[in-house]
Amino acid sequence: MKKIVIFVLATVVCVAAVNYFSLGMPANSATNVDHRNAGIETWVYYEYFLNPNSVVVDLRNVESDKSTADVFRVLFQIAEEFEERKFNKVYLATKGVKKFYIEGNYFKELGSSFSYQNPVYLLRNFPENAYLLDGSKAYSTWTGGVIGVVGRQMEDLNDLSRTWFIGDF
């Protein structure tokens, strides 16, 4: 019995270490260099702590003085850190509860374009690339005049933010 307990504990420690050293530590290093990110705590780990094809970006704390743009900047910095890695899905979670996911290719695109792309462009186009957990698109792709499209995209961003994290902090 004692050997089984030791084996289980060793397995748990190994799984936690793999998640921390391959995802958590690099994500923290990427976001901690920007002082504006103080007050936003994320955990980044493999789905179920075991699936290397899917990653969870889990918001654990967002202080009240932080904006939606601050939270997304952290997400974009994490994407930039992992732009060379391939994932099928990246889940957006709050306090361990998955809310949405984006496809791995879009996560890679965010990471590779964050250094040069207008952040407002990245923000307003984000919702149309988000999926509900059942696999359906979370938001529509808007067409029409620029003012109308941008307005709808920003409404979608606000709704996504409320659902993902604002209601939980």
Question: Could you characterize the architecture of this molecule?
Answer:
The protein has 169 residues and is α+β, with helices and mostly antiparallel strands. It has one domain. 48% of the residues lie in helices and 21% in strands. It contains five helices and five strands. A five-stranded mixed sheet has the order 1-2-3-4-5. β2 (51-62), α2 and β3 form a beta-alpha-beta unit. α1 crosses α2 and α2 crosses α3. The longest helix is centred in the first third of the chain and has 31 residues, at 2-32. It is elongated, with a radius of gyration of 17 Å. The protein starts with a helix and ends in a 5-residue tail after the last helix. The mean pLDDT is 94.
Summarize the structure.
This protein has helices at 2-32, 68-81, 104-113, 119-125, 146-164; strands at 40-47, 51-62, 89-94, 97-103, 130-131.
Cα radius of gyration in angstroms: 17 Å
Outline, from the CA principal axes? elongated
Poorly predicted tracts of residues: none
Q: How would you characterize the largest beta sheet?
A: 5 strands, mixed
Q: How do the helices and strands follow one another from N- to C-terminus?
A: HEEHEEHHEH
In total, the number of domains comes to: 1
Structural class: alpha+beta
Helical content stands at 40-55%
Largest beta sheet: strand ordering: 1-2-3-4-5
Average pLDDT works out at 94
Distance between the termini: 43 Å
Summary keywords:
single chain; 169 residues; alpha+beta; 5-stranded mixed beta sheet; 5 helices
Produce the secondary structure layout.
Elements: H1 2-32, E1 40-47, E2 51-62, H2 68-81, E3 89-94, E4 97-103, H3 104-113, H4 119-125, E5 130-131, H5 146-164
Parallel strand pairs: 2-3
Antiparallel strand pairs: 1-2, 3-4, 4-5
